[in-house]
Amino acid sequence: MSEQMKAADQRIAEAQGPIDALDAEHKTRQRDLDGKLSSASDLAQQLNRSADKLADTQKHVERYVQGKREQKLRAQQALLDESTSEIKKFEKQVEEARNRIAQIDKVINESGSSLSNLRENIRLRKVIRQIEVAQAEIDSYDMEEAARAKRTFNEKWKVAKDREDKLQNKFSHIGGEISSHKSQLELWETDAKEYKDANKKYTDQLIKVKMSDMANNDLEKYAKALENAIMKYHTLKMEEVNDTMRHLWNKTYQGTDIDGIKIRSDVEGGVSKRSYNYRVVMTKDQVEMDMRGRCSAGQKMLASIIIRLALSDSFGQNCGILALDEPTNALDTENIEALASSLVDIINERKNHANFQLIIITHDENFLRKLGQSDVMEYYWRVSRDARQKSTTERQRIR
């Protein structure tokens, strides 16, 4: 192997000489090329100057043509031919220089390719030599000892790997527990902030609840007491109204078919939604019957007046005014006379009351005359229209 390396080094040294020679030739040709390029540039400048001279000659020719100078024209023609010959010679030299430059470029390119190949070969030989050195070092090792060392290393590595896996699992488990504890801690911190004044708030709320319960109980007791009071008041007032109605009916009604009238109240619904339905009943021989549909128009009118008087006595002690608007409508003569007689009895019954007033609005003059014959009134007020259709009132005596 060392002999091969020496031979390779010798070949490399032998190849290095041509490479150096090519580099020197390349530099020489480069200098020649630079010189020729400089010469070509000078030649181009000369050509430009010749072109300028040719232009001057053209101007002289034109002046000659104008001045008819044949001799000068021939001289200038000879000068022009000479300049044209020089231009062709210079153009030929430029073409030769260009061809030479192309040949030099070709040689340079070929030399560069050869140089690259030589460099790649040198690099390859260096790599081969490094491989051989590494192989020799490997061959010097004890393979059995290396195998035992490898097995020992693998066993230790496996044990260490298992321990690493266990530690990694434990680390992950502990990390999860830490994360869970952090979440729980954040939750507890939030709860701690939220329930910071929990005891005070609970105590305040408990006081409010207890006070509300006590207030509700008191209100419930008050409601029951109020309900009982209202019921008792309602019962007493209804008894009072019915007593007054019975008294007035017995004093005023002239017939014998009805012993008395009263108001009945029927309770509907529960305690919270209690309602009353009122109805007027008449009694005969202690038997009650609804008056609706069973009484005459006169009895209905008299009952209406008596009910209103009884209600005003019970609920309007400071206001004893009673107004009757057309009370004789839909009544026959007999009922009108009975109503007039009943009203006379009511007036005589109530005339000692200081606040009692009875206002009757009627168009029935016979009814009015019946009242006047009983000495309960001396005059009345007539409402009429004058010539200008305006309402007027006039006091008139009962005839």
UniProtKB/TrEMBL annotation:
Its main location: nucleus. Residues 139-368 form the ATPase AAA-type core domain. Keywords: Chromosome, Coiled coil, DNA damage, DNA repair, Hydrolase, Metal-binding, Nucleus, Zinc. Residues 1-44 are annotated as: Disordered. It catalyses: ATP + H2O = ADP + phosphate + H(+). This is P-loop containing nucleoside triphosphate hydrolase protein. The lineage of its organism: Eukaryota, Fungi, Dikarya, Basidiomycota, Agaricomycotina. One of its GO terms (molecular function) is G-quadruplex DNA binding. The keyword DNA damage applies. InterPro entries: ATPase_AAA_core, P-loop_NTPase. SUPFAM superfamilies: P-loop containing nucleoside triphosphate hydrolases (SSF52540). It comes from the Eukaryota. Residues 1-12, 23-35 have a biased composition (Basic and acidic residues). GO terms for cellular component: condensed nuclear chromosome; Mre11 complex. Its cofactor is Zn(2+). The keyword Transmembrane does not apply. It is found in: Chromosome; Nucleus. Residues 73-144, 178-239 form a coiled coil. Belongs to the SMC family. RAD50 subfamily. GO terms for biological process: chromosome organization involved in meiotic cell cycle; double-strand break repair; telomere maintenance via recombination; telomere maintenance via telomerase. It holds the Pfam family AAA_21.
